[in-house]
Amino acid sequence: MVNLFSIFKKKKLKKKLHNYNHRILFIQQGCVHCKLIYGVVEEFNIFLKPEKRIRVVDMTDKWNYDIDLEPIANHIDIKGTPTLYMGGENPILVEGVTTRDWLKGFLKGYLEKVGDL
Fold first, then answer.
1. 3-class secondary structure, 55
2. Which residue segments constitute the domains of the chain, with CATH numbers given?
3. More confident residue, 117 or 104
4. pTM, entire model
């Protein structure tokens, strides 16, 4: 039996990323879970200032053909998709599948806490 809480483990990020303030969603083409997460992220991006939006990075070429179009992915150590990276003073990395409701609640709480909503 899989422990659902082990899917959302906090990872220790490399030191140079602790001041990386960007927000990134890593997805892969054809992934149904990525489509679900992407839809929720876009719902929130509508209300955010352009510099505060969550950027979407497609990892398909990197994993299928070893073409490195997004070098930031090498520094965050992406193991799978979807992966949501929320940078800042205390960066958060959410790996794996979540429900729409959980992700909406997480993003709403996070963005309100940092003052972006």
1. strand
2. 22-113 (3.40.30.10)
3. 104
4. 0.77
